[in-house]
Each structure stands twice: as structure tokens, then as C-alpha cells.
Amino acid sequence: MSQAAAQDRTYGGFDCTVDCSGHAAGYKWADDHSITDELDCPDGNSQSFQEGCVAYTQDNMRSDPDEDDDGKPAGAGSDDDDDDNDK
User: Fold this and answer.
1) What's the confidence (pLDDT) of residue 35?
2) Mean pLDDT (10-residue bins), the chain, 87 residues
3) Parallel, antiparallel, or unpaired for β 10-11 and 14-15?
4) CA 20 to 30 Å from 41, out of 12, 27, 32, 76?
5) Could you tell me the residue ranges of all domains in the chain?
6) 87: Cβ–Cβ under 8 A, 6 or more apart, which residues?
7) What pLDDT shows up at residue 16?
8) What does the alpha-carbon distance between residue 85 and residue 87 come to, in Å, rounded to a whole number?
9) Distances from the Cα of 38 to the Cαs of 24, 52, 69, 72, in angstroms?
10) 28 near 20, Cβ under 8 Å?
11) Cα 45 vs. chain centroid, distance in angstroms?
């Protein structure tokens, strides 16, 4: 996936870079730790993880935390381009 295409993707209203997997991981971490206040989200090495945590505090009712805002898989390698190589 090109970086331009990735930048068109969002997760919880936050722009994704390479993919949205960091956002999804932060969202699921916040869910696992019952985070309700964005001030309790870790402010560490990953901006996307932190944004995913914040997204959880703003809306914890995503139908599938492994999908971006358009319903596409959040992780890398989720393009349909290389499905033929999975034989």
C-alpha cells in the first residue's frame, strides 16, 4: 500500500500512516484496561497506539476494532493485492 493511500485511511477520526494497526492495538489495549479518560492513555513511543487509546475513550462501541473507519482491515498486508500469493 502506498503511503498516500494509507493517509486516506482513518481510525477513530485519526489519520493512519502505513496502516491502522497501531491505532487498533491502542484501542484494544484501552478496552482491556477499561480506560475511560484519554489522560490515562500511555504517552509513549507510538503516536498511533496513543491515538487508538484516545479513540476508545471517545467511542468504545466500534463494531470491529480490527477495522479502520471504512471497515477495511486495520493491519498491514490487508490489501487484496497479494491474495494470489497465499497459495
Assistant:
1) 97
2) 62 94 97 96 92 96 94 70 35
3) antiparallel
4) 76
5) 3-78
6) none
7) 95
8) 6
9) 15, 10, 19, 25
10) no
11) 15
